[in-house]
Amino acid sequence: MTAPLLEIRGVSKRFTKRLDVAGKIAQRLGSKIREETVHAVDAVDLSIAPGEVLGLVGESGCGKSTLGRVVAGIHGASDGQVLYDGKDIAALTGAEKRAATLAIQMIFQDPFASLNPRMRVEDIIGEAPRVHGLVSASDASNYVDEVMSKVGLDPSLKRRYPHQFSGGQRQRIGIARALAVKPKFLVCDEAIAALDVSIQAQVINLFMDLREELGLTYLFISHDLSVVEHIADRVAIMYLGRIVESAPTEALFAAPKHPYTKALLAEAPRLDQRKRDFAPIEGEIPSPLDPPPGCHFNPRCPLARADCREARQMLETISPGRAVACHHWTET
Amino acid sequence: MSDVLQVNALRTHFFTHAGVVKAVDGVDFTVRKGEVMGLVGESGSGKSITGFSILGLIDPPGRIVDGSIRFNGAEIANAPEPELQKLRGNRIAMIFQDPMMTLNPVLRIDTQMIEAILAHEDIPRQTAWERSRDALGLVGIPSPEERLRAYPHQLSGGMRQRVAIATAFLNRPDLIIADEPTTALDVTIQAQIIHEAQKLTRQTGTAMIWITHDLAVVAGLADHISVMYAGRIVEQGATDDVIDRPLHPYTVGLLGSVPSANKRGQRLYQIEGMTPNMLAMPTGCAFAPRCRAATPGCDTAPPITDIDGRHLRCHHPQTVGVAS
């Protein structure tokens, strides 16, 4: 196996809501008020090989976006390391650090909120490469044209503002902005979720073309199983801050092992299922402020027993490239 | 089976300063008792405005300019407001995408549900309360007595949508219009909500119009599918026919652009371009500028034709397999 391009080791991210002065006084006076901590990401390990597309799937609040943001360097990790090309990004300095952070770029979900409405498209795309000295000021204009054509935008529109574009075109601007600094690794956080079906297909095709053309590696975060199945080589399923299963795409969709993965696959609507009876799993996703003890999925799990409430089963390799975190995955 | 709703040549236009937006421009369909019709389209196709028109919820500058909406045989298009109020929430109910559009944030759940019953029926408050409690139980809300005392913000998104569905079913309506009710929800919660809606329509014989952009959802739920594009229904037929053998190039394209296992890793079928500007609609077929089968003849509006058990608006039905 080739060395991973990006490796995440035991990464956790916690957000704590600190008490203000009034809260602290109330606490002194015996109130039950306390600091609240959200364990958004809880000791996650992942590795992504060069050229690979890893799909990260989970429902809202499971921490998939937070994990993406930690990888892209927008949030620092509370614990653990993010290694790019074998080196811990947090420990790098100077030019090496800059190279590593430039190599990882992020594409956001909402093409309306992620572009500065007061900047022209040429500045949105051209600013970063100019600042980082990738192109000279005189070449910047041509460079912007080149990047825009690469993502299927007409370069003659570069003097326009984001509001003059449709949702799909804006997402292309977001992609062009990320590509302008010549990244090796893209974190796509629900990058197509806000788009219409026919526009989604255009952007998925663009991602696949770019991968082939530029040899990009992706962390593709999505809640949409069919999209991930289409584009990813390997899939990791996340539930309440933890990875519960990871496997090559085909193996995972053919035979899911974790009860949560099974439930997800069974319930996602598919075109080939007609007039079916929807038979959902019970219950809701627990609050990450107060996750259940042991395995996080146990209150909703059909296989749950006493041991599931006591101890967390760590991710365990069950066959090459395939890991599952469940006490009872062998039972069906 | 009897027809609950017949919509004929419905036109809802918006008269803006920039020009006339023909949001709904000649829509026909029929929904029978106990039937689920999937109304599918992308943003701006007019599918929500069709739903709002049925309920008489079109505000100026918009109005229904033409066509008829017959509900249980009676004409309700442009009916006087008091008459519509007797129908809304009673015989026809609506479930919105965002349950906070249905729920008043400053009133408790019980207040809102009881009000919905007492607005249409003269029964004791206690009876209305009991019916509300039972309705919440039916949509799978645990400890409904307690939930009735809660405010909407104390419930999760999935719970709120359940309350909205329970409220819609309170008066046993003949028709429910569900406008993207699961779009904002997670997969496992979406399955729960579809399950509850499906169960209730089967138990009560309520007809349903399920408005969505997600073909996969209606494939598993609907009896009939109507595909809308730029204010018109371009293809209409039984679910199996439309999904398995689409005839309109737009439906073919939509289905082709849905990722699925058998196309893994391949390029997806791509409909070029984007939806037309509603202020400057192409003359003739609105899909022609994006259509691979388009010919010069497409600049005249295609009439509705019946082919293979379906209503179709196209000069060039894709009868020979999926275009690629």
Determine the structural class of chain B based on helices, strands and strand pairing.
Answer: alpha/beta
Mean pLDDT metric of chain B: 88
The number of distinct helices of chain B, counting runs of at least 4 residues, comes to: 11
The general outline of chain B is globular
> Would you report the number of β strands of chain A?
12
Explain what the structure shows.
- The complex is a heterodimer of chains A (332) and B (324).
- Chain A has helices at 21-28, 64-71, 94-103, 121-131, 140-150, 167-179, 197-214, 225-231, 249-254, 259-267, 306-310; strands at 6-17, 36-48, 53-57, 79-84, 87-88, 104-107, 185-189, 217-222, 234-239, 242-248, 316-319, 322-324.
- Chain A is α/β, with parallel strands linked by helices and 332 residues long.
- Chain A has two domains: 49-232, P-loop containing nucleotide triphosphate hydrolases (Rossmann fold), CATH 3.40.50.300; 243-269 and 278-332, no CATH class.
- In chain A, the strands form two sheets. In chain A, strands 6-7-8-3-9-10-12-11 form an eight-stranded mixed β-sheet, with helices on both faces. In chain A, strands 2-1-4-5 form a four-stranded antiparallel β-sheet, covered by helices on one side.
- In chain A, β4 (79-84) and β5 form a beta hairpin.
- Chain A is globular.
- Chain B is α/β, with parallel strands linked by helices.
- Chain B has two domains: 1-91 and 172-324, 3-Layer(aba) Sandwich (Rossmann fold), CATH 3.40.50.300; 107-170.
- In chain B, 31% of the residues lie in helices and 25% in strands.
- Chain B is built from eleven helices and twelve strands.
- Chain B has helices at residues 47-54, 81-87, 99-102, 109-118, 125-138, 144-148, 157-169, 187-204, 215-221, 239-244, 249-256, and strands at residues 3-16, 19-32, 36-40, 62-71, 74-75, 92-95, 175-179, 207-212, 224-229, 232-238, 304-307, 310-313.
- In chain B, the strands form two sheets. Chain B has an eight-stranded mixed β-sheet with strand order 6-7-8-3-9-10-12-11, with helices on both faces.
- In chain B, β4 and β5 (74-75) form a beta hairpin.
- In chain B, α4 packs across α5 (125-138) and α5 (125-138) packs across α7.
- The longest helix of chain B has 18 residues, at 187-204.
- The two termini of chain B are 39 Å apart.
- The model of chain B has no long low-confidence stretch (mean pLDDT 88).
- The chains are: A alpha/beta (332), B alpha/beta (324).
- Chain A binds chain B through residues 59-60, 166, 168, 196-202, 204-205, 208-209, 223, 225-227, 229-231, 249-250, 253, 263-264, 267-281, 284-285, and chain B through 42-43, 156, 158-159, 186-192, 194-195, 198, 213-217, 219-221, 223, 239-240, 243, 253-261, 263-265, 267-271, 274-275.
